[in-house]
Amino acid sequence: MFSWLNNNQSGEPEKIELDPNNIPAHVAIIMDGNGRWAQKRHLPRVAGHKQGMETVKTITKAASDLGIKVLTLYAFSTENWKRPTDEVNYLMKLPVDFFDTFVPELISNNVRVNVMGYTDQLPKKTQKAVADAIEDTKDCDGMVLNFALNYGSRAEITTAVQEIAQSVQQGQLKPEDISADTISSHLMTAPLGQYQDPDVVIRTSGEERISNFLLWQIAYSEFVFMAPHWPEFTAELLTEAVYEYQHRKRRFGGLTK
Ligand code: FPP
């Protein structure tokens, strides 16, 4: 399991070898930079999203090959509705195109689709594409390809608090019995079970912020910020991010690994 690292100080490509026993189980990616990638090429922003969709295909396959258990991709946030209508419409059509063409390959790679977010607010066609993909891949037991679609972490936490408050009001739960696990179990990542918290969060395009993504779940995640825009992200760059992760010392608040 190796790749070439190109951006080291010597300027010479360096061969990197991953530790197969320390592959992050849950990798979450903030796929940023589609618009800038397009603008640099004098293309409309949506051309960046289209190319970004192709990158999703490449990285899904690469992540599955690496043995990653859950790949969460931030595809559309609860704040992205503020973008121009044409762009929003295009982004809503992408899952339709993606699943129309890619589900057979997902199945042949044993990849199961999951979607987290306020999906009931998506256009009906998008909802159907998503529901069909979930259904068609439900027997796959390899990697979970988890799309965050109309997802926002503050909204997610707010919904969880409302649900927990209701349980208290109905006498099913005592306030003193509310634990961190209670909260986790009300979040949209709960169906991911033991893999609900990302081990590593990657953000492309050089921006270094979280943008309302998995705020509760990233308490002990490692962060890898990378300069390339999402449409130019590659399997080699994913390997590089995993390599970087493998050289971090995770202490979870303690003193040793
Ligand atoms: C951020 O780039 C990207 C998005 C808001 C959309 C991400 C969506 C995809 C990569 C395609 C998803 C594919 C499927 C199958 C759902 P930006 O537009 O904010 O880039 P900028 O910061 O350069 O403007």
TrEMBL record:
Keyword check for Transferase: yes
InterPro entries referenced in this protein's UniProt entry, alphabetically: UPP_synth-like, UPP_synth-like_CS, UPP_synth-like_sf
Database matches in Pfam families: Prenyltransf (PF01255)
Cofactor entry: Mg(2+)
Gene Ontology molecular-function annotations: transferase activity
Family the entry assigns: Belongs to the UPP synthase family.
Organism taxonomic ancestry: Bacteria, Bacillati, Bacillota, Bacilli, Lactobacillales
Cofactor binding: number and manner: Binds 2 magnesium ions per subunit.
Name by which UniProt lists this protein: Isoprenyl transferase
Keywords: Magnesium, Metal-binding, Transferase
Stored SUPFAM superfamilies: Undecaprenyl diphosphate synthase
